[in-house]
Amino acid sequence: MKRIAIIGGGASGMTAALSAAEAGAFVVLFEHNDRLGKKLAATGNGRCNLGNSYLDADCYRGGDASFVSDVFEKCSPEQVRVFLSERGLSLKEKNGYFYPRSEQARSVIDFFTSRLSALKVTVLTGCEVTEVIAEKAGFTVSFVRNEGNSSEDMQFDVVILATGGLAGNNLGVSAFGYDTARSFGHTITPLFPALVQLVTNDKNKKTLSGVRTEANVTVSASFGGHDIVKKETGEVLFTDYGISGIPVMQLSRYAGEALQNVGTASLSLDLMPEYTFEKLLAELKERRAASAGLTIEQGLTSILQRNLLYVTLLRASVEPESHFSKASDETLKKLCAELKNFRLTITGTKDFSAAQVTAGGIRLGEIRSDTMESKLKKGLYITGELLDVDGTCGGYNLQFAFATGILAGRAAAGREMN
Ligand SMILES: Cc1cc2nc3c(=O)[nH]c(=O)nc-3n(C[C@H](O)[C@H](O)[C@H](O)COP(=O)(O)OP(=O)(O)OC[C@H]3O[C@@H](n4cnc5c(N)ncnc54)[C@H](O)[C@@H]3O)c2cc1C
């Protein structure tokens, strides 16, 4: 019987443990938190958005898009959902987003815990793995129990590294997986926070803080001989450090990449996405015609939240208190330009503690996409967020973690998927 150590009791580690144990292996699952799946419990605001029926190349970013499609070729998102539901996890779908039917992340952890126990997986919570050493045959895994202070060793034929990335606050994140992979010769591409809020240097941050508005958001940057232009639509939130909201989080990966490479990125907000420039100009002219006795700020009230309108006027060099009826066509054009292209210079992202995922990771060319086995060290498997793959919001990261966990667990136990 194969002896398998799985290091990390998160999404991919628990799935790997389940599939390896089902395939007949003796499995020990190490988790340094006092319980399994602490990060999983925090996902989807406690509801655990664990997959998505929509899939295209833009849903995943990282070193190599074909790696992700190869993984899903072997174990598709649909197969992941079948894997989970056939074993008793009830799922529900809302607009393509999958959740546990209970909409409680806790029940996903209960699902894994009970199934692992039924399969007699040895779960060692409160055990921090400190070293993995290759032996002539197999590996020695050293660990320290939370309540003890002496190191213990166990021998295994195979090791699955599932220690996750660096994102999230107080959820047990560690760099152990990266360090261990490096010790076996793996390359780690630059790591940076993604699905994260962006920091700007806008001098009106304080005035804008708290404003929410619908916008088309575009991030653009140039480096390494190529231009990045990516767009998202949705509600953005101005904050005292910069800007947040789903479209901003979705684009943060590209801003982070630009910051890594050239130290700057810029964001453009179309604050009036339902208008073309010409339609907006016509609307402003109409309002001007009916603005007797009104300042421009009063005449435009309610097109945007008050503070955002005020800042937009200042940016367009329009005095908010000036008479609207006296505004020239040129002034209105400048205002339209600002409303359609409200630019922000991005100076940074919030740090890993605020992020939902780690961009960068173990270089994909060094991993077999059908089994997650290292091409550099036989018997070493690497899953989930440790790899140089990051998904967008919408269940994509858990979907990838589960798929890689299933593949690694089966292959490590000697039963690859057909
Ligand atoms: C706040 C938040 C919300 C999120 N929401 C979603 C969502 O709704 N949908 C989605 O798809 N993704 C979401 N994600 C991302 C998703 O949770 C992760 O991408 C996914 O959990 C990665 O799985 P993993 O198995 O690679 O790592 P993890 O799930 O992070 O598991 C790694 C485990 O390894 C343990 N560990 C680390 N070092 C050691 C060590 N030395 N010894 C023993 N154990 C160790 C950790 O404690 C952890 O339990 C969210 C992330 C965050 C932070």
Give an overview in words:
The two termini are 21 Å apart. It contains 13 helices and 21 strands. It has a 6-stranded antiparallel beta barrel with strand order 13-16-15-14-17-18. Strands 7-2-1-11-20 form a 5-stranded parallel β-sheet, with helices on both faces. A 3-stranded antiparallel β-sheet has the order 3-6-5. It is elongated. The longest helix is centred in the middle third of the chain and has 17 residues. It folds into 2 domains: 243 residues, FAD/NAD(P)-binding domain (3-Layer(bba) Sandwich); 154 residues, no CATH class. With 418 residues, it is α+β, with helices and mostly antiparallel strands. The site of flavin-adenine dinucleotide (FAD) has 38 residues, from helix 1, strand 2, helix 2, strand 8 and helix 13.
Instruction: Outline the low-pLDDT stretches.
Output: none
CATH domain class name of the largest domain: Alpha Beta
CA-based shape: elongated
The separation of the N and C termini measures 21 Å
CATH topology of the largest domain: FAD/NAD(P)-binding domain
Bound compounds: flavin-adenine dinucleotide
Average pLDDT, rounded to a whole number, is 96
Strand order of the largest sheet: 13-16-15-14-17-18
**What is the domain total for the residues?**
2
| CATH-assigned homologous superfamily of the largest domain | FAD/NAD(P)-binding domain
- As a percent range, the share of helical residues equals 25-40%
Q: Please describe the biggest sheet, giving its number of strands, its sense, and whether it closes into a barrel.
A: 6 strands, antiparallel, barrel
Main structural class: alpha+beta
- Tell me which CATH architecture of the largest domain applies here: 3-Layer(bba) Sandwich
Q: Please report the number of helical segments.
A: 13
Please give the radius of gyration in angstroms: 25 Å
